[in-house]
Design goal:
The protein is an alpha+beta fold. It contains ten helices and 15 strands. Helix 3 packs across helix 4 and helix 7 runs parallel beside helix 8. The longest helix is centred in the last third of the chain and has 22 residues. The two termini are 18 Å apart. The structure holds oxa(dethia)-CoA. Oxa(dethia)-CoA (UT7) binds next to helix 2, helix 6 and helix 7.
Length: 322
């Protein structure tokens, strides 16, 4: 039987950490370190410099993941990049990444857009490709330069997000890897988190910045994350007690605490990067996973739960044996 297994991880954060106080000072925000830390857990984030695009961050994370998996560029026959902040309207960031990494295998490359759930979507798509037998070795990346779509006059959103990338190599394997996965969406909630603009006639039409009803997002996130986590654990025939590590989307420490509590998981089993990274949207789960792996906490054979939620509204979870 074919399984889809993660064989390597990588991540990349651009530049130096920017503290809450530095961000507040740089943009003259009516905010405080205390407010941001208390309401979100965020203490710092990273921003890409001018001219640095999502594919540049994806390249650094992808390179590390390939090295960790012991794979050469031409072993990769599928590149999927989850991003809401692509380099261009087209070509896809995945196609640009394929070229930057020197992948000449002629395999497929495309982007997935499911905002902060993007990595969950990308990973599950890659899993299905591998289980179908059509592809053998995928590079799955979440990469974002959210700083490009933040309104520095909107203190309710601009303090929350950061830039970064995380990547995994997902391969066909005789050993179990992904045990269960599930994706969901409810487009009727599209307006509670959006960038309601477009490029047309040579200019931005509408609003090119992140707009969010924070409380509505918070309530929705807490509800659906607990549901989808239960769904994948049950689908795998396991119980929450079998989970070694929860690697949640890093949006807000209070959302993570609430989901962990509902699911009966102690916080010691959660990989947390929200303090240092902020919300890096589609990059947050693979970034946190890579940190868990490289810090030696997540070990080979551990049962790991990924869960994410984001604009659309979209949400999903994956349970896997690392
Ligand atoms: O990946 C998914 C993306 N997003 C999320 O997961 C975010 C989910 N939502 C949240 O994390 C929280 O709703 C926020 C952190 C965004 C906001 O926290 P909250 O406890 O829901 O605050 P609130 O929106 O109810 O605002 C409370 C007060 C308001 O002032 P008034 O009306 O009470 O005077 C806001 O204007 O806090 C004010 N406020 C701020 N104050 C200082 C909003 N942003 C800030 C700020 N600094 N940065």
């Amino acid at each position: 039987m074919i399984h889809a297994r993660i064989t390597g991880t990588g991540s990349y954060l651009p530049g130096s950490p920017i503290s809450n106080d530095a961000l507040i000072a740089a943009h003259g925000l009516d905010s405080s370190d205390d407010w941001i830390v208390e309401r979100t857990g965020i203490k710092a984030r990273h921003f890409a410099g001018p001219g640095v695009a999502a594919s540049d961050l994806a390249y650094e994370a992808g390179r590390q993941a390939l090295a960790a998996a012991g794979r050469a560029p031409n072993d990769i026959d599928l590149v999927i990049v989850a991003t809401s902040t692509p380099d261009y309207v087209f070509p896809s960031t995945a196609a640009l990444l394929q070229a930057k990494l020197g992948i000449k295998s002629g395999g497929a490359a495309f982007d997935v857009q499911a905002v902060c759930s993007g990595f969950m979507y990308a990973l599950t798509i890659a899993e299905k490709f591998i289980l179908s037998g059509s592809h053998k070795c995928a590079l799955v990346v979440g990469a974002e330069v959210f700083s490009r779509i933040l309104d520095w006059k909107d203190r309710g959103t601009c303090v929350l997000f950061g830039d970064g990338a995380g990547a995994v190599v997902l391969e066909a394997s005789a050993e179990p890897g992904i045990l269960a996965s599930s994706l969901h969406a409810d487009g009727s909630y599209n307006s509670i988190l959006s960038v309601p603009g477009q490029v047309s006639g040579g200019q931005a039409i509408g609003d090119p910045f992140v707009r969010m009803d924070g409380q509505a997002v918070f309530k929705f996130a807490v509800k659906v994350l607990a549901e989808v986590a239960s769904e994948v654990v049950a689908a795998a025939g396991l119980t929450p007690a079998d989970i070694d590590w929860l690697v949640p989307h890093q949006a807000n420490i209070r959302i993570i605490q609430s989901t962990a509590r509902k699911f009966g998981l102690p916080m010691e089993k959660c990989i947390l990067t929200v303090h240092d990274h902020g919300n890096t949207s589609a990059a947050s789960i693979p970034l946190a996973f890579d940190h868990g792996v490289r810090s030696g906490r997540i070990k080979c054979g551990d049962v790991v739960l990924f869960e994410g939620v984001g604009g659309g509204f979209t949400w999903g979870a994956t349970l896997l044996k690392y």
